[in-house]
Design goal:
By secondary structure, this protein is an alpha+beta fold. The chain is built from five helices and eight strands. The strands form two sheets. It has a five-stranded antiparallel beta sheet. A hairpin with a 2-residue loop joins strand 4 (80-88) and strand 5 (91-100). The longest helix has 38 residues, at 115-152.
C-alpha cells in the first residue's frame, strides 16, 4: 500500500541521482538516435536485471524494478524524463518525475548498486515511522481528554473553541475566542507540561 514515508524516501534518493547527473564532468547527451547502444551496454553489464524496453516511432521507454513494488522509468526522446512509480492497489502511482540533462545510466547504475543499503535504510525509517504514529495516537487521546476537562467542562472557558491537528511528528493546537486566535505546537513527549502552561495562559486569553 502507498506510504508517504516510503514515497518521500525514494523521492529524496532520486533527487540525488538528478543532482549528480547535472554536475557530472564530461557528461554526454542521450537522445532517441543514440540510446539503443547505451541501453544494450547496460543490459550486457547487468544480465540479471530485467529491463522492459519499448522502441517506438520517435521515442523509447525503459523500465526496471528497483524493488518488488517500485519501478524506475525513462522516457527518451530529444530529452530524457525519469520517474519512479510505486504499485498501489492494482495500479502505479507516480512518486517523482524529473528531466535529466545528460545520459543518466551512470547514475542509475550507481543507484542500483546501493539498493540493498537503501532497502535496509528504508526498513529502519518505516519502523521508526510506525513507532511515531503509535506515539502520536496515544498522545492525541490524552491531549484531547485534558482539553475537554479544562475547556469544554469549564464554564469559565465557554467562549473558547479549540481544534487539535495531528502533524508529522507533533500537534498543532488552535484556540479561538471571538476574533482572537492563538496557535500552539505540542510535543507528544512533553505534552503534559505544555498543556498545563497553555491552560494557565487561557485565564488571560
Amino acid at each position: 500500500m502507498y506510504d508517504d514515508t516510503e514515497a518521500d524516501f525514494w523521492k529524496e534518493h532520486f533527487s540525488h541521482i538528478l543532482h549528480k547527473n547535472m554536475v557530472r564532468v564530461d557528461a554526454k547527451r542521450l537522445t532517441f538516435d543514440n540510446c539503443a547502444g547505451v541501453i544494450q551496454s547496460f543490459r550486457d553489464r547487468h544480465p540479471d536485471i530485467r529491463a522492459d524496453v519499448n522502441f517506438c516511432s520517435g521515442y523509447v521507454t525503459f523500465e526496471i524494478f528497483i524493488t518488488q513494488t517500485v519501478k524506475l522509468r525513462l522516457f527518451i526522446q530529444n530529452q530524457i524524463k525519469g520517474s519512479l512509480h510505486q504499485y498501489d492497489e492494482g495500479d502505479y502511482v507516480k512518486l517523482v518525475d524529473v528531466k535529466f540533462p545528460y545520459d543518466p545510466f551512470p547514475e542509475i547504475e550507481e543507484f542500483l548498486e546501493h539498493i540493498p543499503l537503501y532497502i535496509e535504510e528504508l526498513s529502519q525509517t518505516l519502523e521508526k515511522s510506525v513507532h511515531t504514529k503509535k506515539q502520536l495516537q496515544v498522545a492525541r487521546e490524552f491531549i484531547k481528554a485534558a482539553l475537554i476537562k479544562a475547556i469544554d467542562c469549564n464554564p469559565q472557558m465557554a467562549e473558547i473553541c479549540w481544534n487539535l491537528e495531528t502533524q508529522k511528528t507533533d500537534f498543532k493546537l488552535t484556540l479561538k475566542k471571538g476574533s482572537d486566535t492563538k496557535n500552539f505546537v505540542i510535543s507528544p513527549l512533553k505534552f503534559p507540561e505544555e498543556i498545563r502552561k497553555i491552560i494557565e495562559n487561557l485565564l488571560v486569553f
